[in-house]
Design brief:
182 residues, mainly alpha, 52% helix, elongated
Length: 182
């Protein structure tokens, strides 16, 4: 739930409900590649509920002590009627998953960039993922800041297969037949 109060009368807030879905196979590798703790439980996709409603509409709900039960019921009904079917359809479409993880992908945080590259590998295969890694390396060339250095390190780790356990590293994001970090 995202909230905002700026410019609103006292006692009022604007809220946006978000719905998320997690791909265990993708997020386990994201956590490994980024060196995140076992408690890492992030979502692969996060989408505003309004985006899933008919006509992609926004609406305001009055939340007050006397209306909170009704509002919660409305939100639960919308989740069941719209969000669950929307997400079910979404996870069946690799194009849709990649579209959601790719938004501005070169400006993404390290974790978000990792998620997009691993999702591409899972859903499209090694070659498209490798092309994105190469594109990211070209985009980062000449950037001499800590964020770019961290992303380059991540890209090197993905090429080595740091996101895969044991023998799977031999297949990770390297072109077939190549040796080393590539």
């Amino acid at each position: 739930m995202g909230t905002a109060v700026a410019g609103l009368p006292a006692g009022h807030a604007r809220a946006t409900s978000y719905v998320g879905a997690r791909s265990e196979s993708i997020e386990v590798e994201v956590a490994r590649a980024c060196g995140l703790a076992d408690s890492y439980r992030n979502r692969t996709l996060v989408i505003p509920l309004g985006y899933m409603l008919p006509k992609r509409r926004r609406r305001e709900l009055l939340v007050a002590p006397e209306t909170v039960t009704d509002v919660a019921g409305e939100l639960a009904d919308e989740l069941a009627s719209y969000a669950v079917p929307y997400l079910s359809d979404l996870v069946e479409s690799s194009d849709a998953v990649l579209s959601e993880t790719a938004k501005g992908w070169l400006q993404l945080s390290v974790v978000e960039l990792t998620r997009h590259l691993i999702a591409t590998e899972h859903l499209r295969g090694r070659d498209p993922a490798l092309e994105l890694v190469r594109e990211a390396r070209r985009a980062l060339a000449g950037q001499n800041n800590p964020a770019a250095a961290q992303k380059r390190s991540l890209l090197d780790g993905l090429m080595r297969g740091d996101h895969r356990p044991g023998p799977g590293r031999d297949r990770a994001m390297r072109p077939p037949g190549s040796v080393g970090g590539g």
